[in-house]
Structures are given as C-alpha cells and as structure tokens.
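Fold this sequence, please.
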Amino acid sequence: MGLGSFKRALWVFHIATGSCNGCDIEIVAALTPRYDVERFGIKLVGTPRHADVLLVTGPVTRPMAERLKRVYEQTPDPKAVVVVGGCGSTSGVFYDSYNVVGPVDKIVPVTAYVPGCPPRPEAIIHGVVTAVAKLEELTGEKR
C-alpha cells in the first residue's frame, strides 16, 4: 500500500512526552526539502483536533501522562498512534527514572512503533504509513 492510495492528506500531530529531542529533530528533518513528506500528503498540524496520527516521542514522564491522555482523547476517531524511538517503546535509558511512568503503550494504545535512537526520517515515514495501513484494515476505508 503506497501513499498514493490516500483519498486526502494525512495530518500528523507531534507530542514530546519527555524525550531527549533526538527523535524530534529527525521528525523535523522529515519535513525538510530533502524528504519533503508534504508531497505525499503528510502534513504536521498544530492541534490534535485536526490530526489523524499522533507521533509520540520519549518516555512518558509523570507530568506528561495526563496531558498525553488528553491529547489522545482530543484526536478524532479513527486515529493512529506512532511511537518514534526506543525511549517511547521501552523507556530506554530512562526506564528506572523516578519521574518516568513508563513507555507510551502504558498510557494510550499504540498502533505502530518506529525503533531507533534516533530513527532515520525514512523509518518515521514508514511508521506513519504502516499505522495508516492498520487503520484502513480496521475501519475498512481508504484514508
């Protein structure tokens, strides 16, 4: 399933829940002219109320746990959650920190994981496409 099968643009909201910002920089790199994800219809939006996909980076810190739940609830259905980087998947090097409540999947359901520390922009794009493909399977509609 390629990006050309989408009926409309895919809007993505990025939320950092306690990351070191390595993954965040790679997300920004995917938006630059070198990768130019907007040509495929993937667009970063400023509010979860307009998003189809949540890109989450970092382990979930205590102050961000409730905020992540709120952002997830504000995102309209059907939605996908893509965890970018090892820290969001397993809490990474922060696994035993006093202020980390765990990986993202302990707080909200996750559709796809993008491994790496930090993952390359190509991997992030692939993760978003994989999540949308899973959504299409569940809902039976093309995005």
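Residues 1-5 have pLDDT under 50 and may be disordered. Strands lie at 10-16, 42-44, 53-57, 60-61, 80-84, 100-102, 112-114.
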